[in-house]
User: Fold these one by one.
Assistant:
Number 1:
Amino acid sequence: MLPLSLLLSLALSLPEPACAQGSQDSFAEEMAGLEPYDLSSTPLDERDARLLKESGYRLEDRYIFASSQTSPVGREDLSFILEDLRSRRRLQALLQMDMIFNRNDFQKKLPEPDRETLRVIARMYWGILPSATRKDLKPYFSAQEISEMNLEMSLGPLPPPRIAEKATPPEPAPPLPRPAARSVPAPSASAPAEQNTTPASAPAPLSVLAAAAAPLAIAANIPASLPRPAAPALPAAAPIQTAPQVPATPAATAVDKPIPPVSQPAAATPQIPNTAAAMPSAAPTATTTVIPASATPAPAFPIIPAPAPLPPAQPAAPSPLPSAPAAPLPASPTPAQPPAPAPAPTAALERVPVYAPSASFSPEGFKVFLATAPYPREVKALLELLATHAREPERRTALGIVRDLLPSLLLDSSRSGRHGSSVLVEQGKDMLRPGNIQIALNDAPMILRWKKLFGKRTVRLPDDPGYYEALGLRPPALDAASRDKAPEREITEEEGTVAVYKDGSLRLRLSPEQLAGELLAALLEADARLKGWPSDIHLRLRSAAARNRFWRAYAKAQGRQPLLDPESLTAYQEWLERPEDWADLFFQTMERDPSVELRLLESAGLLSSEEASAALERLPKGKTVPQEGVKELPVSGPYARESWLETERLARESQ
Amino acid sequence: MNALLLSLLLGTLYADEPAFIPYTPPGGTFTCELPPGWSALEERSVRGISSRMFGPRDDERVRPAYHIHQVQKDTPGFIPLMEGLKRELRCEGACARIATPMQAWRISERGAKVFEVRESRLFPQETLPAEPVMLHHFYAFIPDKEDYFIVKLTVDEDAFDAYRSEFRRFLQKFRILSSRR
C-alpha cells in the first residue's frame, strides 16, 4: 500500500502546466505575437471545456485564460495544455482503478459496487486510457458498450444535445457505490438548476478524482478557485449507494460534515464581467460558491457530479482582447449578473473534437487494420514499411493518424502541386473526420533536360496541371507530363532510376523506401496541422528529421543504404554526418523566390521572354526598403522547434 | 589647405565602403559586424546554438547567409572539432563536394581552420521547379575550450568571388564573447 500511496501523492502533486504557473510571464514573452485561441471561431469540445474549467482555466468571452493570468492561451498552446491535462487525468484514473483492484487482491471478479465504480471510471476515461488497459477492461462491459465507447473515442463525441433537451427532466445518475455511512448534503436552494440536467456520463472533475485519495489522507492539489459541483450537483432524489467495506479514516469521516457554501473573498475568485451572463443557466446568485480543497476533503469514492455546463460563447459580447491582448483584468471580482434570457447558442454548443495523438502502437493490431484498410496495394506496402522500420514516437503518431482518421493516400504526382515530395490537402474543414485529409505523394518527378554548349541542364518540373494553370501556362507538351502514357524503358543514371518516354522526356522513379519516408513526413505534417501548429521551417525540419531517422533504421535493418534519388541521398548523408549543414540549407531555402522560379521556367522554354519579363515586372519590389540596424527575424512558435529538436535528440542518442 | 585636401582625398577613398553594423545575438556568445540590410535569427539547434544572418535578396539564385553554430560538448551527437573538420572535407557516396586546402588563421585570439567548399545541390529543396545549383561555402572552425564555433558563409558560386573579401572582413571582426565554461 505504501508504494501506491506514494504514487498517488506524486500524481496529485503533479505540477500544473507551464501556462498555469508563475512561469507564464516569461513564457508569454516568448509567445508574444501569437494568436490566442478564439472560442467563437473554434468552439471547444464540451469535454475539453470542462477539463479546462476544472483545472482552473477560465473561459471568458472568446478566450481562455490560465488561472491568475491575464494573457489568453495561445492557439498553438491549447493542444499541449489539453494533452497535459489529459495525461494527468489518465494517471489519476489508472491509480483509482489500481486502488480498486488492490483492495480486492487483484482478483478479476470484483464485488458489485467496486465493479460498478470501475465501469464508471473506465467509461469516463475510455478515450484517454492506454490500449492495453482498455483491453483489460473489456470483460467488464458488453460488446455493445465497447462498440459505443470505441466509436466515440475514434469519431469524436456524439452530436450535441439540442437546446430543448436541456429543459427536459434529467436522467437519473447511474448508481454509484458510495459509503453507506456517509451522508450527502441535499442540494442547496441556490444550487444551479441546470446541473441536474447535465448528462451523468461526463468526466468527473479533478476534485472527484482526488476523492480516492481521501482514505490515504493525501491532500488533493486542487486549484482554490475550482468550483466544486460534486455535492450540490447530485439530485435530491438520488439514492445513496452502498459502499464497499472500507475502513473509515479521519479524512474520510470529515465528509460527513455538510459542505458549507463559502463565499470567497474578492481576490480569491476573480469574476470577469458578463461571464455569468454568458452562461444562460448559471446560478442567479451574485456570488460564486467556491470551496477550497483543503477545507473539505472529498468523499472516499468517486462521485459522478453533474458537470458545469459549457458556457456558450457570446459573439456579440464586447471583448477587449483583440485590441489589447495583455490588458490587465480587474483584480476585484465583479458580481455575476443574473442570467440573461437564454440566447440560441447553437454554434457554441457544437462539440468540436480535439485531436489527441495516438498514445500507443501495436504492430499486430496495425497489421490487422491494414488487411481491411481501404488502401491500394502500393500504399499498404509503404505503410507496412513504416510499421516495421519507423521509430517511436513518430511511428505511433503517423500510423495513429492512418488508423484513426483514414486519410486519403495517393501516389500521384499530378496532384502534388509544386511540392517535390508530397503535399497535404485538407478536404473539408474538419480534419478530424475520417477521410478528410488527403496526402498526395509525388512518386515520379518529371525531368526536363536539354543540352548546352558545354554539358547539359536538368530541371525538375511539377506535372500538376493546376500549377501551370495558376501561372496562366499550359502544361509542358511532353509524354512524361501525361500519366496515361507508358515509358519506353527504364535506365539508371546520375539522377537515379529514370523512366524514358518516347519523345525523350524523363520521369524519376522513386523507391518504396523513399516514398515511405516521404509518407511519414507528410503524416507528421498532418499531425502538426491537427495540433494547430503554424506551418513553418521547424515543421519541415521535424518531418525531414523523422524521415531521415526512418531511413537510417531501414538501412540498419536491411544492411544497406536506402535507395534514394541522389539529392535525397546527399541530404540524408549530410543529416547523418553534418546536421548543422543539413539544417542550414533548409533555412537558406526557407523563402521561395518567384523571380528565380520565373527565370527557371523561362529557361526551360515554358515561358516566353516577354511573358517572363511581364511577370517579373508584376512582382513586388521589396529589396530596396531601407533598414536600420540588423533586423531580428521573428521566431516562430516553440512547439514545432522543440518537437524537431526532440526528434534529433532521439536520433543522435541512438547513434 | 593641405589638411582639407587630405580629408577630401580620404573621403573619396572611403565613400563607397558601407557602414557595417555591429551585431550580438541575444545569447551573447559572440559579436560581429554585418553589412547593412541583413536579418538575423538565433535559436537552439541540434548540437548547441545557431545564429543565422540572411543577406538582402539580389539577383543571385541563392540568398547569401552566414550560419554560425556553437557546437557544445554536452549535446547528443557531439563530435570533436577535428572529427568535424574531417567530416566537412570528406565526400562519399552521392555527395558532390570539393574542398580547398585548409588554412590556419587567428580569429578572436584563437587558432582557427579556414577553408572553402563547392557543392552542387538541388535548389530550392522540396519545391518544384528546381535545378542543381552550385553553392560556395566559406568555413571557419574556431575552437572554444571543449566547444567550438563553425562560421559559415554560403553564397551562389557565380558570386563567390565578391564574398571572399567579405568573409575575411567578417572573421576579422568576429569575437567570441563568453565561453560556457
Number 2:
Amino acid sequence: MTDTATELRTTRVVVSRRKEGDDPATPRHDTYDVAVGPSSTILDALVTIRRGQDATLTFRHSCFHASCGTCGMRVNGREGLACVTPVPDGDEVVVEPLANLPVISDLVVDMNVFYDEFDEAGRPLMRTSELVSGGGIAEGIEELVRFEDCIECGICLSACPVAGSDPRYVGPAALAAAWRVVEEPRGADPGPVIRLMDDEQAAWRCHLAWECSEACPSGVDPAGAIMRLRRAAAAARVRRLFSFGGNR
Amino acid sequence: MTTDELPVQPPVAIQPPAVAEPAESTARGIPAFVGQVVSGVALIILLGLHMVAQHFVVPTGLRFYDDVIAWLRNPVVIVLEVAFLAFVTYHALLGVRAVLFDFGFSERTEGRITTALTVVGIATVVYGVILFAAILGAA
Amino acid sequence: MAMSSAEPRRPASGPARRRGVVGWFDPRGRRLGGLAFIVNRLTGLGLVLYLYLHLGILSLLVQGPGAWDTFVDIALSPPFLLLDVVLLTGMLIHGLNGIRVGLVGLGFVASRQRALLISLMVVAAVVALVGAIRIFGD
C-alpha cells in the first residue's frame, strides 16, 4: 500500500523473538506492520515497532551512523548494520539476530563470544589507544583500546560459514586484527603474532568463502587480511626451514 | 601571543602492541592446505595427461579392451597412472577430511577420521596397483 | 563509580546459535564467494564418489574383453555421455576454482580474487560447452 502524498508504504516486519528461558529449538517470529518511507532503515522500523506496537522487543543500537557497531543483525538472511540497512522493497522483511553468537534476547546477541576470540588469540592484537591530548579516560577504565577500522560488530563472524559450523575457528575479526599488527608493527616484533596465527584453527582454517569481507560494513576486508597473514606465515616457515634451527 | 608562546602539546603516545611470545608454537605440522595445493597442482598436470591420453585422443572417447591392454603395457603410462592415482587419492581424502573437520567434532574423533582416511587412502592405492597387475596378468 | 576488577558480568544467554553445516547450503544472503565455497565442496565430494566408481568399473578389465567392451558400448550411449558432460563440468569448476583457492589462499592476488573467480568460471563454462559439443558431436 503506497501513500503517494508521503511516499509511505506499509511493510510487514517479521522479527525473530527469544527471551530468557525460551527453548532455542523452537524459534518464534512476530510480525508487525510498519509504515516506512523511501529512506527508512531497519533500525527506524524497529524503533517504530518498539515505540508504537511492542515495548518488549529488544535490540541494541547507539550511534545511528554505522560507527558504533552495536546494531549488527541479519536482514533477509544477510548481515548488516540495522542503522544503515534500508528497508528492502517488497511486502515483507525478516529480521534475525546475528548468527553464530548466543542470543540474549530477541535481536541482542552475547558479544562476549566474539571478544573471547581475541582472548583465545592471546589478545596481543589490540593496540594501546592513541590518546588525544587533554582527553581523559572514564573512571574505572585502565586504558582505551581499539583496532583500526574494525567496529567490532560481529558481522564477519555471523557471515563466516566455517565459524558457523566449528566454534574452534579463531574467526575473521581476530585474524584481521593480527594482520594489522604484521602489516604495521609500529616497532613491535610481528613474529609472535605470525606464529600464533599460523595454526590450523587460525589462518589456515579459512576456506575462502569471502563472506566476511563482503559483509563487513567498515571495509576491513578480513578475508584478504587472512590470506596475507598466510603468506607471511608461509614465508616465516620457509625462513625457519633455512635457518637450521637458529633464529626464527 | 606568538606561536612560540603556545603551550606545547605532548606528543601522541603511540605504543607498540603488547605482543606476547606464545608459550609454545601453535603451528601444527605443515598445513593441510599446502598439501592440498601441491597435490592440486600435480593433479592439474596428471589429470590433464590422463584425460588427453585416455579419452581425448581416442576417437570413441573410451578405449576398447585390446587398445587398453596395449596402452597399459607402456611403462611410462603405468608410472603416470599410478602417480595420478596416488595424488588424486591424497587430494580427494584430504578434501573429505577438510569437510568433516568443519563439522566441529572433538579432537579425538578428528584423530580417528584422519586414521580411517589414511587407511582408506593406502588401501585405494594398493587396490589400484594390484588392479593394474591383475589386468595385465589376465590379458 | 570505579568498576570492579572481579570477573566481568556475563549476560544470561544460551549456546551460540551457529548456522551449522546446514548453513553452508542456506542460499539466503550468500554472495559469490560463499557460492564458490559450497559448489567447490559439492563438486569435490562428487568427484570423490566418481573416483571410487571409476576404480570399481576398471575391475571389469580383469574379466577380459567381453565384460569391458560391453561396458564401453553402454558408456557410449547418450545417457552416459550426458553424465560425462556433468563430470567434465564438475572437474572444470573444481579444478579452475582450485587455482583461485591455491593462489589467493597463499596470499597472492587476494585483492583480485573476485575477478579471478569470475574469469575462471567463464573459462570453465566455455570449455564445458566445447567439451559437450565434442562429446555429443563424435
Number 3:
Amino acid sequence: MILRSVSLFRRGKQTWREVLLWVVVWGGIGFVGVFPEVIDMVPPYIGIKSGVNVLVFFGFVVLFYGVFRLVVKMEALERKIVEMSRARALKESDADDKMDI
Amino acid sequence: MARSLVVMPVYNESEVFEEVLKKTLFSCKRFGLDLVVVDDGSARLLSTFSAASQKPIVLLRHEVNCGVGAAVGTGFAYAKREGYQRVLTIDGDGQHDPADLEKLIEKLDQGNDVVNGSRFLSSQKVPASRRVANFFGNIVTFFLSGLWVSDSQSGMKGFSVRALDQLEIFSAGYEWCTDVFREASWYDLKVVEVPISVKYTEYSMKKGQSFAVGTDMVMRLVIRALMR
C-alpha cells in the first residue's frame, strides 16, 4: 500500500500529505505486525485491559469518524445539487406562465 | 387579502396528475389562491398546460430527482421571489382534499404561523402501517423540536409570511416535514393543527414512505441536529 501510494504521488495523483498519512497508517500496522508486543505497552496508560481491545476500540473510532465525514460530504454534495436544480428551475420559470384562474 | 401560493410537489405522478390538478385548480379558484407545481425530475415530462382549466400553469422543473423537501423549498423560493405572503403545500398523489386548504387559510387568518393539516384529528380510515410510521415520526419530531403534533409527516401545511421569511427548507427528502417543526420551534413560531380528510388509494399507498426511507430520514435528522 505504501509503494502504491508513492507511485500515485509520483504520477501526481496524490498529495504528499496523503502519502504521509498512508505511510503512517500502514507503517504502523506493519510495525505492530512485526512487533505485536508493543501494543501491550499502551493499555495501562488509557485504562483498557488488553492490547487487542485498544486496537478494536480505536478501529471503531476511526470507522465511525470515517462514516460521519462521508455523510457530511454527501449532505454537502446533495445540497449543491439541490441548489443548482433550484436555480435552474427558477430561471426557466417564465413570468408569462403565471396562472390566471 | 394576503397573496397565497399553493405549492404542489410532484414526482412521477402522470397517472393521476390531471385529476389532482383539476380538483386543486377548482379549490384555488374558489379561495383566491395561485398554484405552482414543482416537478421533481419526473421521468415523463408534465404538460405546462392544464387540460382541465384550459390555461397554462406555473411548472417549475428540477432536472434531477432531489426529493420532496427540495421541491417544496423550490416552491418557497418561488413564493419569496414573486412576493407571496403565504404558502400552502399539498401532496401531488391525490391523497389530500384541496377543499381543506380553506381550513388552513382560516387558521393563518387567526395569526398562526405554521398550520399543520392532521389526518389523525378526525376518525378516518388510515392504514395501520401509516399510523405506526407516523407515531414514530411524531416521537422523533418531539425530541428534535419539543413540539408534539398528531401528524408530523403530513404534506398539507400552511405558512404565514413570518414563517416564509424565517424558515429555510434544508432537508431534501421526506424529513422536511419534521425539520420544519424543529425550525418553527427555534424561531418561536406559532404552530397549530387542523383536521383534514385523507383518501388512501392503492396508488397513494405505493408512493408513501417505506421503512428504509424512515430509517434514512431519522439518521439524517439526528446527524443534522448534531451538526448544528
Number 4:
Amino acid sequence: MTAEVAVVCFALGDERFAVASADVVELDRANALAEPLAALCGLPAGTGAARTLTVAAGGWLRTFAVEAPVEVRTVGQAQAVPPPTGWRPPLVVGFARLDERWVQLLDSLALVALGRTPAEPSSPVQESP
Amino acid sequence: MTELAALVEGAGRRGLAVDDVVATRAHVGLRTNSRWFAVAADDVVEVIALPTVTRVPAAPAHVLGVALVRSRLVSLVDLEQLLAGQPTPRSERGRIAVVRADGLELGLVAMATRGLLALPDDGATEVAPAERPPWIAREVGHDGLRLAVLDVAALAALVARGARP
C-alpha cells in the first residue's frame, strides 16, 4: 500500500489541483501552444501567473496551461479523502487537505484524454534513441 | 346554549370518522427559486448552512461542486438548475439538505428550508404529470404551497450516472 505520493500542485482560478509527479514530464513558463486546462474543465480561469504542465500517461503526452503557485508536495494517506458517493467527478480520484485547503487529485490518464474521443489521441510519447 | 357552542358540541358527539383520517408523513420543504420541493424526512441526514463549495472540473451544470460535511465530502446538487436550467440564487439563508438513498449521498441546495411538513402519504396525492422528470414522485398542496415531492433514490441514481438534464 502506498504511504505517500509526490504530486505537482497547481491552481485553476480559486481551486487547487494536483497530479502525480511521476506523470509530469515538464514544468515551464507560459507557452502559447499549451491548452488552457481551466477552459477544458469548464472552470473559471484565475489571475495567477501562467505555467505549462506537460503530463504523460497511457503512452500519450499533453501540455496544459495552468496557474501558479506550482509546487511539488507529498500527499499521505492521512490527508487523502475519497470522492463523494453521490457524484464522482470524472477527472478526480480523490481529495487531499493541504495547508487548510482542498486539493483535487487528478487522474493523469483521464487528464490526457480530456475532451478527446478515442479516435483523436494526443501526441504519442517519443521514445529516446 | 349559543348556536356556535351547539355546533361544536354536535361535532364532538359525531366524533371523527375513519374516512376523515389522512395518513401523513413528515417531509422537509426546500425552496429553490420560485419552486418548492419536499423530501421525506427519513431520507434527510441533516440540514446545514451553505458551506464553502469546492468547484470540480468537468462537472455538469447542476453539480455545484463538493463540500465537507462532518468530515466527509458531499456533492452539491442544484435542483433548479436540473429542472429549469437556472441556478438557485445564493443567500445568507441558503441551506443544504443532505439526503441519502441506496448508499449515495447528495447535498441539495436551497434558498430556504421549511419543516417538518406533514404531507399526505403516497396514495392520497396527485401523481406528477407525465412531463415531470422521474425524480419527482408527485405533487402536493400544503399551506398554500405547491410542493414537488422528490424520489431521492431516482434523483441520486440520475446524478450518480452523471446524466445531464
